[in-house]
Q: What sequence folds into this?
């Protein structure tokens, strides 16, 4: 496993990491969850991603139990949480000082840890001044409850605003952003944030690298049993990745990409993950998996990066046909 700096911070996280959205508590119980976490940790993964909203807190509860059982040294792994969707009451959501404070303490209790390494604002909150959120995050860091804070799916402009406010008042600015990034969703990471990597040293912990499984090719012949799109509560995901014309276009493109993967002697899944890893300003690719065999296959992606020669990248681009336009220089 290789380790990358989280942006310009000194924190080194594994280039592949492991997340708990959909899977922990919905698809994985304690025994299975522990098995996968141990496979990940033994392979050198040192970052585990979570959020207050995952399975309404149950995912973090499960992770907390497993961390306790494994007795991993706290200084050997990095764990995150995210704040935004904590409940239905007005005080239980968003990025007000109150909810940021309450959500952080609840996550610490669920995860059974003394501090969160990474704490993300899960979405921007248009009802809270950015200065209030920046101050709330800074205060958690000063109390030792959070080490690094960042954002998820914020626009470049919102991130810059948070950064500027922090600089103006001598507070700690955001270190990282958690955006979606995969072969079908690339504009933000490749274009919108481009200046932020250099100007503020932004790190990225990217999510859904397999577009929820589409880039494994598993949906080419319909919906197999036991995948996330068949779960109750995830009908919206099925509508977006199976029942839409865009979803069908992605499934067809994944089939064409399979040819490139077989020429390289790797799986489509590994090709898609390595394609994300090729980007130097991706600090870590967060994997999701519901079985040991999926996770082991995905871990193999780190050995595929060297096979992505310029010719291979060009062949992939010609299938994807979605390279972000270059910003004109005058
Ligand atoms: N910040 C945010 O807003 C945000 C949003 C989403 C996710 N995330 C984070 O990013 C992490 C990863 O996202 P994701 O789970 O959507 O990633 P993903 O890689 O796009 O999808 C993972 C899912 O694809 C299927 N899969 C994975 N490997 C496979 C393989 N080798 N063969 C066949 N199927 C395979 C599994 O689902 P099935 O077995 O059910 O098919 C697995 O759970 C999450 O756990 C979470 O920590 C963050």
A:
């Amino acid at each position: 496993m290789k380790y990358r700096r989280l942006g310009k911070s000194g924190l080194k996280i594994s280039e592949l990491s492991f997340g708990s959205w959909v899977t922990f508590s919905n698809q994985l119980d304690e025994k299975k969850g522990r098995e996968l976490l141990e496979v990940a940790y033994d392979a050198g993964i040192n970052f585990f991603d979570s959020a207050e909203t995952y399975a309404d807190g149950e995912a973090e509860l499960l992770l907390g139990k497993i961390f306790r059982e494994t007795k991993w040294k706290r200084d050997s792994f990095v764990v995150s949480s995210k704040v935004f969707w904590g409940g239905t009451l007005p005080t239980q959501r968003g990025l007000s000082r109150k909810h940021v404070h309450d959500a952080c303490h609840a996550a610490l209790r669920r995860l059974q840890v003394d501090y969160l390494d990474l704490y993300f604002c899960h979405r921007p909150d248009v009802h809270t001044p950015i200065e209030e959120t920046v101050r709330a995050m800074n205060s958690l860091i000063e109390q030792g409850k959070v080490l690094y804070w960042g954002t998820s799916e914020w626009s470049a402009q919102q991130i810059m605003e948070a950064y500027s406010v922090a600089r103006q008042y001598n507070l700690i600015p955001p270190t990282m952003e958690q955006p979606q990034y995969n072969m079908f969703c690339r504009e933000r990471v490749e274009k919108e944030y481009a200046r932020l990597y250099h100007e503020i040293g932004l790190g990225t912990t990217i999510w859904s690298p397999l577009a929820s499984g589409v880039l494994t090719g598993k949906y080419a012949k319909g919906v197999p049993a036991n995948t996330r799109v068949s779960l109750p509560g995830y009908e919206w995901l099925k509508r977006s990745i199976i029942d839409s014309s865009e979803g069908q276009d992605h499934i067809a493109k994944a089939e064409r990409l399979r040819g490139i993967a077989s020429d390289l002697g790797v799986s489509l899944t590994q090709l898609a993950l390595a394609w994300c890893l090729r980007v130097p300003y991706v600090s870590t690719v967060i994997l999701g998996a519901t079985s040991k065999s999926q996770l082991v296959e995905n871990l193999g992606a780190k050995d595929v990066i060297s096979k992505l020669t310029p010719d291979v990248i060009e062949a992939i681009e010609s299938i994807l046909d979605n390279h972000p336009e270059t910003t004109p220089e005058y």
Q: What stands out?
A: The first helix runs from residue 30 to 42.
